[in-house]
Amino acid sequence: FDIGSIGMITVEAMMCRKPIILKYNKEAFAKCYKNPPDGLINVNTSEDIFLELKKLVDQPKTCDELGLKNKKWVELNWNSHKLTKRYIEICHVISKNDIKLIKNPNMLEF
Fold this sequence. Notes:
Blueprint: H1 8-15, E1 20-22, H2 26-32, E2 40-42, H3 46-58, H4 60-77, H5 80-96
Helix pairs in contact: 3-4
């Protein structure tokens, strides 16, 4: 069973206040972000997807709450100030060819 990952499409959907159902490694994601988003719904099987979709349909308030959490997380973690700072850090690494300059060497993404 394989479904999605956390990439730009996920971030764009989060910005649109959508709850996100996907399979992802929470521990790996936590290495990149101090506070991973708590509006994500982590699933492992197609049965899990069905059950989570049913919950969201039956509980529209929960759907809205998860979507709002996701939007707030993106606004906090993907804002223009943080992105600019990260781009500058990556440019320094590239110009000096020194991976040690990256504050979090496990994360070459944002």
